[in-house]
Amino acid sequence: MERELAQNVYDTPEFFERYSRLNRSVHGLDAAPEWPAIRVLLPDLGGRRIVDLGCGFGWFARWAATQGAAHVLGIDLSEKMLSRARAETADPAVQYVKADLESLELPEGAFDLAYSSLAFHYIEDFGRLVRTVFRALVPGANLVFTIEHPIYTAPTAPGWLVREDGRKTWPIDRYAVEGARITDWLAKGVVKQHRTLGTTLNTLIGAGFAIRHVQEWHPTPEQVAAQPALAEELERPMMLLVAAQR
Amino acid sequence: MERELAQNVYDTPEFFERYSRLNRSVHGLDAAPEWPAIRVLLPDLGGRRIVDLGCGFGWFARWAATQGAAHVLGIDLSEKMLSRARAETADPAVQYVKADLESLELPEGAFDLAYSSLAFHYIEDFGRLVRTVFRALVPGANLVFTIEHPIYTAPTAPGWLVREDGRKTWPIDRYAVEGARITDWLAKGVVKQHRTLGTTLNTLIGAGFAIRHVQEWHPTPEQVAAQPALAEELERPMMLLVAAQR
After folding, report:
1. Which residues lie below 8 Å from residue B173, measured CB to CB, with a gap of 6+?
2. Do the chains contact at B176 and A205, CB–CB below 8 Å?
3. Angle, nearest 10°, between helix axes B197-207 and B126-136?
4. How far apart are CA B174 and CA B176, in angstroms?
5. Domain count for chain B
6. Looking at chain A, which residue has its C-alpha nearest residue B171?
7. With an 8 Å Cβ cutoff, is B80 touching chain A?
């Protein structure tokens, strides 16, 4: 039941309509403040075969094609997102496939890069997915992904508290208690899977990946100057960026 | 000034006296709840040359000698701790040296294991220390260490908050703002160095280490049953355990 909800929330009318209005849904990669930090983790894409796990509206897939990628396979569970992605994509190097990341199967050694943005925190069986991705990559290939940071997903009641001295703090609890977290984000009852940062990294290492970079994303001073609301990301990380190599 | 304080706090009478009364100071490794989790990260110690960075009273050094270590070099800055360590150590395989981890020099390729318990979060120049340790290890050798977890060191006001519903939470702020944190732990004005988990791992990777295991320590159900006060460690991690390999 919970899993059904998590999987299909993007196709519920209320969620989809609100998600479609997010800055990053309207304006793409450059509207995501973490994008510059992701981009420096990516290899040169020229001639690469890329799989995008949770491709959404296809912003990354289309951008990768403009960078000379030989082939980009975008995978998502949401019919509505894939429908818009297909409508907005003309490049024949980009293809979209509907699939559930929980039961995904991929050809072995078929990709030079696996990419995923803010999708893996919906996945219950992260170990299965990581092993599948490892096998689908050629030796030396990278997996670059972002998830919601476990500091962000852990709390029973995620939200800022204002202390007596006026400082905003982010109240952590249940950090070591992994599993489902039900939150109200764009719609009521969205289910995310909380895993500690250690579990995420150890799962990658256990599958054979070498950890290349771990970034608990925060804005640069220039980003804060241009968009002051981002300053709260200095107080607690909302996003985790990981680069790993087969 | 701050650095002097951080370095020498263990030798101030008030701090040393209180530190000496901690369970782990009186009863050694088995009184540290994280010890079973550390132990599984250690290789077989038989015949190994080991350096213990921040050896304190020498509990680990003496234990390593009982496990057949060929040589254990315990390093600490505190005269008082080294004095007690020497007094309690009879094994000729164990030696103690006074040195500052900030400016430590070690012979190259001289050790098969580097170990450190709850010392690195006092170090300002972690990068220099990690590069020194890397060079001091033989290829394939492990670095196993614990530090205070950045969730624990980050806050301006570290301490539990009780929410209206009675739940205890740990208020995070300034997570991305690295640098000194002045806290009252056993004595007033103890200076620790806050670094994000990402920075700690990326520093190791940058020096050439492969990350083998990352554990945000929490107690087992058996430990909580035996010592109910440990349950709060499920809410937010206090300690980080890392195993890396040259």
Report:
1. A167, A168, A169, A170, A235, A236, B154, B155, B156
2. no
3. 40
4. 6
5. 1
6. A171
7. no
Instruction: Count CA within 13 A, CB hemisphere, residue A238.
Output: 14
In a domain, A18, yes or no: yes
Q: From chain A, pick out residues whose CB is under 8 angstroms from the CB of B232.
A: none
- Give percent above pLDDT 90 in chain A: 81
| Contact between chains at B169 and A167 (C-beta distance less than 8 A) | no
Residue B3, pLDDT score? 45
Contacts B198 to A, Cβ<8 Å = 213-216
Query: What does the alpha-carbon distance between residue B73 and residue B58 come to, in Å, rounded to a whole number?
Result: 10
Domain membership of residue A158 (yes or no) is no
Residue A30 belongs to a domain: yes
Residue range A135-145, pLDDT digits in tens: 999 999 999 99
Q: Between the CA of residue B150 and those of A99, A146, A218, A236, B173, what are the distances in Å?
A: 37, 20, 15, 11, 11
pTM for the model stands at 0.95
Q: Position of tokens 């991705």?
A: A133
Full residue range of the structural domain in which residue B29 is found: 2-245
A 10 A CB-CB count for A228 gives: 10
Band (pLDDT 50/70/90 cuts) for residue A4 is very low
CA closest to B151 among chain A residues: A151
Mean pLDDT by 10 residues, chain B (246 residues): 55 85 86 95 98 97 97 96 96 97 97 98 97 98 98 94 87 97 85 97 98 98 95 96 98
Cβ distance of B213 and A202 shorter than 8 Å:
yes
Q: Token digits for B60?
A: 């680990």
Cβ-contact B52, B82 below 8 angstroms: no
In a domain, A116, yes or no: yes
Coil, strand or helix at A119: coil
**Interval A186-218: pLDDT, tens:** 788 889 999 999 999 999 999 999 999 999 999
Domain at B26, CATH number: 3.40.50.150
ipTM metric: 0.94
Three-state secondary structure call for residue A90: coil
Q: What are phi and psi of B46, to 5 degrees?
A: -55, 120
